[in-house]
Specification:
Helix content is 34%, strand content 24%. Strand 6 (119-133) and strand 7 (139-151) form a beta hairpin. The chain has 418 residues and is an alpha+beta fold. It starts with a helix and ends with a helix. It contains ten helices and 16 strands. Keywords: Membrane, Transmembrane, Transmembrane helix. The chain crosses the membrane at residues 386-408.
Length: 418
């Protein structure tokens, strides 16, 4: 564990040198099943108006079923040290309350964390509401500002922290939105919605009403599923994907889909003409972390383009449902999509580029980006390279003959007249 922490520290130090520090301004954890038996009963996420919302703002332990969401207005390195302290506490069996308390040792830093059997808590610098929903449906919403706030183990409820980023056009809305969303969390828990669905609703409301709209991302703590880099920035000093904007278009009839910006070119399904349904980013977030009986987890590597990621995920899911976990079938389906222009900017894949794990219902797709900003791979012609070498030799020979004729034009004409 120490080695992993040191490796993460090195990466974070590089980020700190290359860019100004950035932190999430929305942190939320929702618990609808404290026991962890419901695969969608424990979820959380982070989002902000700020740049550089990389995955360091949400950490998920799939083995130990806990998450750490970081933030605050302090420096990046103290924030990292608080994260490391919290990881060690949770890893060694500590509660969320104990782990979140570590943030108080670092000025301006916030740690929100939680785990199955550990409850949830937020510590350090924050403005938050703690929501507790009793078994009889009673909802209690309590405001806290700084120090430590706790959702005890065994309780249904949630914690939401929200502030506005300087420069956000909706600056000044955080206090009202924070309260409204906290109340909505309580009502949705009371009404039986799973935590993953509630978190997606929080993202929608905060992005729309408070302007803290860029991913970030979310985690399903109970099932160990994350949005990964679906919404995080592709490059340094950029904002993530706007969570209140369209993310993909899907055919409700056959399941064909295309992610943005490719989706802008389609109004109806190219396969059967059915009008396409627009999927917003908060919908895609919900679908990515919500586990169902037929769920397939698809991870995409080698491209950060939302259109490539979403389209690949839908193609893989459809192929697995039809033909099972076959590397050959998945590779063929992806290459057909590349040929048809549905996936751009990456080279063709081979079966060895597809990593399938049927036992955990997971598929990994490894792309190689095309050089020089090309959108499609070179055409594969049915003629071998030897043919073109011979053709080139013929062209060269003809060129030489024409050159000789040109040089000796006058001599040849004189001889012909004689």
């Amino acid at each position: 564990m120490k080695g992993k922490i040191l490796k993460f520290l090195g990466i974070f130090l590089i980020f700190n040198i290359l860019m100004g520090s950035s932190a999430a301004t929305l942190n939320v954890i929702v618990v609808t099943d404290p026991s962890g038996k419901d695969p969608n009963g424990f979820a959380g996420g982070s989002m902000s108006f700020a740049q550089n919302m990389f995955q360091s703002t949400f950490i998920l332990s799939k083995e130990n079923h806990f998450t750490i969401l970081s933030g605050g207005e302090g420096e990046a390195i103290p924030r990292l040290m608080a994260i490391v302290d919290a990881i060690n506490i949770l890893k060694n069996g500590g509660t969320a309350e104990e782990a979140a308390s570590a943030a108080s040792n670092y000025p301006g830093i916030r740690i929100m964390c939680g785990g199955v059997g550990k409850g949830a808590a937020v510590g350090g610098s924050f403005d938050a509401y703690v929501v507790i929903v009793e078994d009889d449906g009673t909802i209690k919403v309590t405001p806290y500002s700084g120090g430590l706030a706790v959702l005890p183990p065994g309780k249904k409820g949630g914690i939401i922290h929200l502030r506005n980023t300087h420069g956000n056009p909706k600056y000044g809305t955080a206090a009202a939105v924070r309260k409204d969303v906290a109340i909505k969390i309580g009502k949705m828990i009371r009404d039986g919605y799973p935590a993953t669905v509630i978190v997606s609703e929080v993202f929608k409301d905060v992005a729309t009403n408070a302007g803290e709209r860029y991913g970030g991302g979310a985690v399903n703590v109970a099932s160990g599923v994350s949005t990964g880099d679906m919404f995080t920035p592709a490059n340094l000093n950029e904002t993530g994907y706007p969570m209140d904007q369209p993310y993909a278009k899907v055919c409700p009839h056959c399941g064909w889909s295309a992610g943005y910006p490719t989706a802008e070119n389609y109004q109806v399904c190219p396969l059967d003409g059915t009008p396409l349904k627009t999927i917003y980013a908060y919908d895609a977030l919900r679908d990515a972390i919500t586990v169902t009986e037929g769920s397939i987890s698809v991870s995409v590597y080698g491209s950060d383009e939302p259109g490539v990621i979403q389209t690949t995920q839908e193609i893989v899911k459809a192929t697995v449902r039809e033909k099972g976990y076959s590397e050959e079938a998945i590779a063929k389906a992806i290459n057909d999509a590349i040929d048809n222009g549905l996936i751009i900017g990456v080279n063709y894949v081979e079966p060895k580029d597809i990593n399938v794990k049927p036992g955990s219902k997971a598929v990994g797709v490894y792309y190689t980006p095309l050089p020089d900003h090309r959108t499609s791979p070179p055409m594969e012609l049915p003629l071998g390279s030897g043919f073109f070498e011979i053709l080139g030799d013929i062209q060269t020979a003809l060129g030489c003959v024409l050159l000789i004729l040109l040089l000796f034009r006058s001599t040849l004409i004189t001889s012909f007249r004689r």
